[in-house]
Amino acid sequence: MKVGLIQTRTPADQTAALDHVLPLVRQAAAEGATFIATPEGSNILQKDRAKLFPALKSLEEDPFVQGMRAAAKALSVWILIGSALVKREDGKCANRAVLIDPQGAITATYDKLHMFDVDLPTGEVARESESYEPGDRAVTADAGEAKLGLTICYDLRFPALYRALALAGAEVMTIPAAFTRPTGAAHWEILMRARAIETGAFVLAPAQGGFHEDGRGTWGHSIVVGPWGEVIASLDHDEPGVLIADLDLTAAAKARKAIPALANARAFTGP
Known about the structure:
The protein is an alpha/beta fold. It has one domain (2-262): Carbon-nitrogen hydrolase (Nitrilase/N-carbamoyl-D-aminoacid amidohydrolase, 4-Layer Sandwich), CATH 3.60.110. It is built from seven helices and 16 strands.
């Protein structure tokens, strides 16, 4: 399975975001990728909630989402929108991953479970829960021969989620992100490798990178990790670009047989 990870620097408008991402998606397809994943917040990044909320649209109305559906069909590829920031059916907002098949149909969605509510040592404050309604379920989905475990960014720090996805059969964990620069420098690669090792699964982490139109800075350094924890491919920068990698999906079963941690875990009481 050849995958393409898209590293972006998403602007503060859905149409501009589509113009930014579409050439990179076409490049990935031209390089042979049959599964293409974009980062968290691929359709719009806007820190100012007074500007963000009026701009958000439903999946059906969002021009970025519809553009990616058309691209998947035209290129005959799977596309995972790592997340689109959208209006939910109940009028609330969601940080939502969207899986699109080669016919352009949406086959699965996942709303981010864990909200990034932190006070960083740098003085930066994030309150994602003030903008988005968290999801309430873990999601696996088939994409061709691969079974995906869908997650988003801050989910990375909650290993129980990945164990549950692995036990449900996921062999490829998708972790699209818009990581902050301080936490990216300190934790990005090591956490991605840890999640891969713990679950015996591939990790695909397409990332936002650089300094954005809304003033935020993101880490970049998109990465693909194998089930043994090895870095298969990575970008060493925060510029927009494409990362291509070949996955041997049988490697997940081999890693889980060699280190059967999923099977050997035991229930316990205490402390």
